[in-house]
Amino acid sequence: MFESSNTDAAAVPVIIMHGIFGSKQNWRSICRSLTNKTKRRIYAVDARNHGDSPHTAIHSSEGMSADVLAYMKSIYSQKACLIGHSMGGRTMMYFALTNPQLTERLIAVDISPISIPRTFAGMNKVFTAMLKISVPPNLSLGEGRKLVMNQMKEATAYPDMVDFIMPNLRKKPDTGEFYWACNVHALRDSLPNFEKFKSLISTLPPYSGPTIFICGKNSVFVSDDHWPQILKHFPNAEIQWLDAGHMVHFEQTELFVRAVADFLNK
C-alpha cells in the first residue's frame, strides 16, 4: 500500500494491478505521485503467480478478479477505482463487468478486451527459454541475470521483453540456486485463457461507469478498429493516446500520471 499522511479517508481508494511478469514494485513511484495528486489511498498489488503473491495452478482473469474482491474485503473497502496494465487491465475489466456496484471507475492501460497481438508460438518461446535457463550457483545475482539475459535474447522472439522479465530471476542465499519468482508453468498454461477473453465477457452486461483506456500510439495491443466493440462493453469509455509503446506508464510516466489523476479527480 502507498498512502501519504494527507490522504482523504473518505475518498474511494485505488487498486492497481500490473501486467504479466510485472509486480507491485513497478508502480512504486507512480503510486506516490497519484497519492499526492488525488489524495486517495493507492494500493498496488501483486497478481497471483507474481511477486510476493502465492503460486497457484489456475491463472485466469476470473481467478485474479476474485483475488481483487478478496483484497477489497481485507481493506474494508466498499468500492474501488481500478487500474490495470495489460494482464492486469483485463482482470480489472472483468471485475468491473461482474462487480459494477463495487467499481467507481476503471482505467485500462494499453490492453483491449477484443484481442491480443502476440501469438501462442511467440509467447511459448519466451516461456520455454525461461524454463531452460542454466546458471552456475557460484555466480552473483547480477552475473546470473546478465548470463540469463543473453541466453534468452538468443532464444526468444521478443528480446525487448527480456529486460522486463529479469527482475523475476532470484537467487536462494543458502544454496545459490537461481529461480523465477513468477510461476512460469502456470503463466505458460494460462495463455489459452487470455485468447478467450472476448468470448468470456461476451454475455456479460456492459459496465456503464466512467472508464478510460490509456494507450500507446506505438503499441500493437489496442487498435482503432477495436473501439466500436470496446464501447459495447464499456459505453462510457474514452481513450487517450500517448506517444509510447506497450509500457506506457514507464515511457511517458509524467503524462500518464497526469492523465490518470485528471480522470480520478473528475
Rg over alpha carbons = 18 Å
User: Could you say which overall geometry the principal axes of the C-alpha atoms support?
Assistant: globular
**Beta-strand segment tally:** 8
Oligomer: single chain
Provide the number of structural domains. 2
Q: What is the ordering of alpha helices and beta strands?
A: EHEHEHEHHHEEHHHEHEHH
CATH superfamily membership of the largest domain: Alpha/Beta hydrolase fold, catalytic domain
Give, in spatial order, the strands making up the sheet with the most strands.
2-1-3-4-7-8
At the first level of CATH, what is the class of the largest domain?
Answer: Alpha Beta
Task: Write the CATH architecture name of the largest domain.
Answer: 3-Layer(aba) Sandwich
Mean pLDDT comes to: 94
The third-level CATH topology of the largest domain is: Rossmann fold
Distance between the termini: 23 Å
Helix coverage percent of residues? 40-55%
- Structural class label: alpha/beta
Largest sheet: 6 strands, parallel
Q: Total number of helical segments?
A: 12
Low-confidence spans: none
Question: Per DSSP, what share of the residues sits in E-state strands of 2 or more residues?
Answer: 5-15%
Write the layout of secondary structure elements.
Blueprint: E1 14-17, H1 28-38, E2 42-45, H2 61-74, E3 80-85, H3 87-98, E4 103-109, H4 120-131, H5 141-155, H6 159-165, E5 169-171, E6 178-180, H7 184-189, H8 191-195, H9 197-200, E7 211-216, H10 227-233, E8 237-242, H11 248-251, H12 253-264
Parallel strand pairs: 1-2, 1-3, 3-4, 4-7, 7-8
Antiparallel strand pairs: 5-6
EC number: 3.1.1.116
GO molecular function, one term: carboxylic ester hydrolase activity
Enzyme class: hydrolase
